[in-house]
Amino acid sequence: MTQSTGVLQSGRIRVLKEGCRTLDRNVGPVVYWMFRDQRVRDNWALIHAVDEANRANVPVAVVFNLFDQFLGAKARQLGFMLRGLQQLHSHLQHNLHIPFFLFQGEATETIPNFIEECGASLLVSDFSPLREVKCWKEEICKRVSDSVSIHEVDAHNVVPLWVASAKLEYSAKTIRGKINKLLPEYMIDFPKLGPPIKKWAATNHVVDWENLITAVTRKGAEVPELEWCEPGENAAMEVLMGSRNGFLTKRLKSYSMDRNNPLKPKALSGLSPYLHFGQISAQRCAAEARKVRTLCPQAVDAFLEELIVRRELADNFCFYQPHYDSLKGAWEWARKTLMDHASDKREHIYTRGQLEKAQTADPLWNASQLEMVHYGKMHGFMRMYWAKKILEWTSGPEEALAISIYLNDKYEIDGRDPNGYVGCMWSICGVHDQGWRERQVFGKIRYMNYAGCKRKFDVDGYIAYVKRQVGEIKKRKAETLFNKNEKELCI
Fold first, then answer.
1. Are the C-beta atoms of 35 and 64 separated by less than 8 Å?
2. Which segments of the chain have a pLDDT < 50?
3. Which of 144, 212, 299, 445 has the fewest beta carbons under 10 Å from its own?
4. Is the pTM for the entire model greater than 0.85?
């Protein structure tokens, strides 16, 4: 069995740097650098930070570093994130009496500077497999004093990534057994989190949320915020467990039957924006789903497969494969077959600009692109078709992969995520898949076409549905702009 350190199993924590304690130096406060897991509830990283602070009888603070349009994020993603953080700040301050500091700039400077200023002895960070985050942590380890320890806590995965597997896994089949074997150890109850014993000294650090959100969303206005997706922990729990339209309470039954039908988006959980920004814990979602398994065993099992196995497989790929968003990251068979067919004649060749504006000869593909651009969320089944068509319509696999990642990260509310990178790599480079019958352009990569979609769902119905949806969004936007202009004229 996994041993505990304090209230956490030791396997959930990685020591990135062991600080050396000197007798003449007092133990300093604990700082939790929040990045991927933006929540107060059910957050193992925050629980560990408070527990360590209490055991050392020192105060604890939470810090967040805001990057300038991280990996191409625009108003859509940054607005959602900042509005969630605004609620989190209030919750921390009023319920736990823990201060929240927000910095802007390079984390490799702001975090070490803050640690030095407050004399912290421990920095706790949550876990992300993305290469940028790994590089920042390596640099921060070098920059902080030798007396500072740095712990990384996997608060995102149910089974911590490094415990689930110590290597790059080939497929869901190779990781599923490993994860399922470890679930009984890690699917434990979250301890109740109370205010830390020692209070942080009064601070004059103020976050001007309204002006910050206005500035950030204005700068990223090219991709506007969404109306349908309310940010924050409470909204996330409402989507999971709400009495009106909660996934587990009202919509679970149709999940196993309808989740692959793009005309029935309500059959999906709707949790991906909240899971991406860490506004809800995957472990909490899994625990609540298990409680209702007897009602809909097939639906719950399918949901847990996606929530745990597939999500953790995506993290595994991005952590152990440094080229997770490039052709270099594909298996050798896939690289060879794609290069063998790179010069095959294509029926159509489209530029990135044409694809972005949905200017292709395929009305189904155009509908999926428009759904993503305006609604911020493309149905999972359509994402596969969408990416495979980009492979078919561009000059080669490198360009196809670059364009699919660019569009996904720019428009999807849950872009810049291991699931997104792996989704594009699966569709275009056959990652976590197998070789299929060889054909033009695709080689042995799995093929999808319009006729296949027609057999699976009502294609014309989906195209009409997206057209209505986009029309309504544009109409509301025009009304909002008109009302704003009217108001300004009155002033």
1. yes
2. 1-4
3. 212
4. yes
